[in-house]
Amino acid sequence: MRIDRFLSKNRILDLKSRELPSALDELLAVALPAGTPDEERAQLRVELIAREAQMQRRVGDWALLPSVCTSLVQTTVIAVGRLPNPVSAEEGGSEKDAGTVSGFRVIFLVLAPKHGRRYLTVLSSLVHELEDEDETVLAKVGDLNAFRREVMQIFRGAEQSSKLQETRWNRQFAKTAARLAKATRCQVLLFFADTFSSTVSLTDPTETSFRTIIVSESNTDFIYPSGKKPEVIHVSSYGSHRMSQLRAALFVGLMRGSIKSTDRVCCLGGGDGSNKLDSMIVIEAAQEFPSIMVKRGSSFVPAHVRPEVLERAIGIATELAAEGREGKPVGTILVLGDLEKITPYIEQLVMNPFSGYRAEDRNILNPFIEETIKEWALIDGAFVIDGDGAVYSAGSRLTAVDSHLSLQSGLGTRHAAAAAISSVADCTAVCVSSSGQVTLFRHGEPIVLLDRSVSRTV
Predict the structure, then answer these.
(1) CATH code for the domain defined by 168-288
(2) Burial code of 101-137, b = ≥16 C-beta within 10 A, e = fewer?
């Protein structure tokens, strides 16, 4: 997403104060429409401070991201303020003075319309852009005009075009793969970009006979020479195995509708970070998930669940499997669907840690809730999530039972519970095992998205 469309140079300023209330006043003065009453502005400032006290939204130790939905704006607005240098100890000040914005260099204020549905998407894109940014670049910028240019440049992104890490081998392999894909009548090319240690240049889709989809673990900004952006599927890799993200990426593509069940898909890549293309697989999309495609049709996503919510749940599950906590996978279940149909089959094992918070603050599309979910995954029980992404509960026991289910040997009670609730209620259950396997259950049928014990070889 192009964040610069929500920015303008007159909303990028040097702040005069390091105290949060005063700094927010300065940012609100340029972010809110002219003529906004002072009392409404003050009330919004109080709400922002209260939200920061509840959970500080930040990127690293250099950027604060206070955000709120409000009826005072009609479209999303981002205001950026550079904080003054902290007062040194010799001058009688301290970074730990009460009310100061300790240690931070920049504040990104995000205001979104009250009922806007893109708020969390914008916030997530902003966080991902800033996570890949070196804060020292902004810190070293001199005057305000230079700072404004640097901020706008960061979020334009497209101009940071890549140098192709091409070798004679890669060029020849890519040409051979293109000929084979054409000969086998492939409709889609899945390109595994993590093969290369830096961004790769791409061939414009007008020059090929198939649709290109990029698969990558990173948040790199891919771009065609024409300036257009390709579709990117972000899936975590659990190891250096070639195309280890294949099944998860294929499922996300089918779920989005960018890959059809009738498509033949050419997958091209190599070992992670090897900078060498060495593997090509041609597969039939429907044959990868026959239990769902054949027995139940192509209903990957329950009617009440937004596709991007299920995609984010899969992303969190694969991250728990690949990274976990302290390098070990963390087992859990994420149940997504209509709460009215799910709640009869759940019991709370512990006090619900998500009770009492606003829906936007406990939504899995909110980038600041990700670490909270990963921490609560350490306790027994399942997460229950509604179709819009709001987490209803954690530490929930699933009581659904389906005597007709037959699981493969080796799967335990966690998988049985996930399979049962996906069978009796119109929902999807994403199960992460303690061994790092990620299995999605739909209508009681398992779809293995990540299996650490088995790697695809060519």
Answers:
(1) 3.40.1380.20
(2) beebbbbbbbbbbeeeeebbebbbbbbbbbeebebee
